[in-house]
């Protein structure tokens, strides 16, 4: 139907038509694409070795201690025959960046460099020299860049001093320039008839592995880099290793077909349902790469359906992982959708320390107790849960080295240095058959059979967690892979809807003249006023109600009727949080120990502890308790922890910090969800405001009706800001981190004297009987427990209330200003025009004195247009 639509010959109409074609093709590509699993993480977490081991071939990908490939590697998977090993095809497809892709990549690197330098060293004039400049397509080529960047280095002797002393400039900025120079040199080396831009080449895998490596991390050059042109073309890259290596900066991705052994991973069933490919992303932040890898990853992550985030078990919190996550959020996915799309592999788990649980003797063990005594496991729990939105079946612990030993996999194609590291790590593993994590897994299972750590640890003891990871991927693809794929296609569909509406608007605007545009403004402003004044602002003002702690949240006004109503999620409720903190405090084991001491006492008072006993050296330990010389041997002779306020203060601090952190994270997620919800709701309005035909009309209208250009700029800026809630939330997010507790502050919130022996401590002298009865009565325990729970809950909810206030203090004025900036319907009129003379001294009959067309009706409305093909297309598309 679109080809039947006559497109008026205006730039706006042609641009809108091109946008429809572009978004339609994007949607088709996403529907037809295979289910794509992106493997992401920092370069030092061992993801390439893990990925190869997962597929049954540890040396499938280059594995070095330093970053290597620096490219996106696509592994297109097929199932092999039984008895055959996993193997890669003999040839590899090299896909080069198109000119447009290279232009965007250079723009990404340059814009980051400009923003940073203008903030830190404005005297360098990076923005003035390079802002808006594209060296790939600019007729001047790289000349402006080449004439500017030497200012980052010391000037030659006798020359005028640089605007900023070079020692004050971070080497990272020079390294970024060096990378841009490598891209420049590669681009200029291949220009001509046989350009590689947009080219695809099949190259022997051996040549690819030798040629495509990041340059080793070098010391930043002491002088500005010079041109280094080494010619190559699309013909010699297929056979010349050096030519292929020189083309490295222009490569977009490497595609490798892999046949997976069904004896190692029975992929047949999975591939029979959906074609699957794995994308191994370059490690962000690697030395030797200063922006190119990040730009390539940002573009490719748009079409990833499932994310396998590989983190280091000993250091799961990583800047690289957070950067990847931010990229995905910037693409418009909600935090909930990302949580459903993610799997987390805490890798190199063989280096994780087996926690000593001397302070937790016995057989029972809860997950919170384990995590309090095992920092590395707690880090995996905290940061893994952040990415999978608390979906514990999405977290696995893995290590390639135990898996290589368990499955007897060959790794002969790895470099000698890497093979030696694998052999050294293997030598440190426990003997085959020994299961070091089983005692902890069994204790957890006896206390909580459904806990996630028991299967996680047992899977690691089995084969390094590889089989657990395989099943997690299979289950996720079957359960969510197609859903995630369709979610990406749905985003493209919404973009296509908006593009079609924009095209229709431009077609009718071109046909109807000026008055139709002003009626359109009035209708759009009425829609926006409804959204702001009925839905957004009342909900934000409700967050400021002083009684929301008692209400446990707030109701969000809905839009639409019945099943068509939509609502964003509510922020974390203070009442629910307070109740949860209460329950957490009541579960402290010290309360139970004290009440048990009172139960055992004939007078039902909390018995005093006894002083530590001396050892005669003659006792023989009962076999079930193990070696008395270890940490467990002396644990029973310590003063009971519950005899001093220190133990309760420590618990108090941990509980408040944990629930405060959880609440802060929940509020952060709510902000992201709220922004994602309204970003989608406002999408058609943003399209309309950004329409090239709309902006000049609004600027003229506001300048005329609101008294000048400055006020028009300010009020239109308020409206544009309110339509971009994700940008607004980005600016608010830092406010959620400004409030931190220190130890002394938390001690001040604790409802008892800190660092003080309690009445049942053996060092406390005996008092009169009625005083002892009062001070050691179980009611004292109950009172202390209640006061502690109330204090902890109040401390946490006060923090959340303060943080929520920091959010609403920014959002409420923003949307109040936007509402005030909307013009009333009576103000939305075209400019007054003087009637032209018809040559007889009479006004023209074509336009009235106010610019009203004779086609308009008496009531100000316009007769209906004849239906256009674009109308039928939109109607049919909406029904389908």
TrEMBL record:
Annotated Gene3D superfamilies: P-loop containing nucleotide triphosphate hydrolases (3.40.50.300)
Compositional bias annotation for Low complexity: 623-634
Region ranges (Disordered): 547-571, 601-643, 826-880
Protein name according to UniProt: Dynamin family protein
Organism of derivation: Streptomyces filipinensis
